[in-house]
Structures are given as C-alpha cells and as structure tokens.
Amino acid sequence: MKSKLAIAALLVVIALGYAFTRGYSPFTSQSVQTCEKAIQERLADPSSFQRIGVEESRRSITFDEFFTDRFRAVSEPTRKAMIEAARVAPIQYVALIDYQAHDSIGAIIRERATCTYYSLDGSDAPTRTSWVKIDGEYNVDWVARQPNAAALHQRLLKNL
C-alpha cells in the first residue's frame, strides 16, 4: 500500500515538474489566463497559441499612476470617492509571456508579449480581455490600426 502511494506521489511530482519546465504552471493566475486570451485575439490562428514561458511581477502604484490611463479618467469627485473607498494601494500586474503560434501563412512565429493589468482592489483577476494591455495597447486600440479592423472588431465583440 505504501509503495502504491509513493509511486502515485512520484508521478504527480514528475507531472508537475514537466509542466513547470514547459512553462505550463498548473497554478496559472487569472491575470495570465486573461492576458493569454487577449494575445490569442490578435493572432491569425488563435488555436495555434502555445505558451513557452511566463514571468509575473506586481508592484504597488500611486493613485495618480492608476488614473493616468484614459479608460480610468473620471471626474475629480469620482476619483476622490474611489480613493476613499480603496482599502489598499493600486497594484500593477505585469506578465511577460513567451509564446509561439502560426501566422497568416502558417509559419511558426515566436514572440514575447508584455501584458499589464491595473487593479484598484489588489486582486489579480481580470475577467475581460478589454481590461489588460498587450505591449502597451488595449486590443480595441490595436484592432483600429489593422487593415481588417472590422472583422477583428467583430471577433473581439464575441469574446466580451
């Protein structure tokens, strides 16, 4: 009985070790999962996305830094109310995601994306790709610059 338990534990350790060495943590944070979805929305073949590795970091930021983003531009009374209601300082989450995928002609591309998410309550749980920036740009802004913007915009709307 003890040998079966030891073998099962060893298999779990081997599986987790393999996952970590391949860049697939079984404990991927919600922010990384959302960032990966946002990256996939930009790919010609989203189903070909494969994460190679990820590095995550977080840091406290000031409320001034938090409110500099145009999507968080609010009136002064609203800003004051949000600051008073906050229990913690805002947090900036950054994930550097190395991945590979197929481009529009099927060639394999390898890229690194920098994903940024700002949290007012300290949670790392963005559930919408519209809340994260990939390489300094929200997907809605990225789509607007593309030659096939209308089709890409429709694809983004399906994922909201």
What's a quick, concise take on this entry?
This protein has helices spanning 2-21, 30-42, 63-67, 76-85, 139-144, 149-158, and strands spanning 50-60, 91-102, 108-119, 133-134, 137-138. The chain has 160 residues and is α+β, with helices and mostly antiparallel strands.
How would you describe the overall organization of this protein?
It contains six helices and five strands. With 160 residues, it is α+β, with helices and mostly antiparallel strands. It has a five-stranded antiparallel beta sheet. 16% of the residues are buried.
Query: How would you state the average pLDDT, rounded?
Result: 84
Task: Give the low-pLDDT segments.
Answer: none
Return the string of H and E elements: HHEHHEEEEHH
Largest sheet: 5 strands, antiparallel
The count of strands amounts to 5
Assembly form of the protein: single chain
Number of helices: 6
Shape: flat
Beta content comes to 15-25%
Task: State the end-to-end distance.
Answer: 50 Å
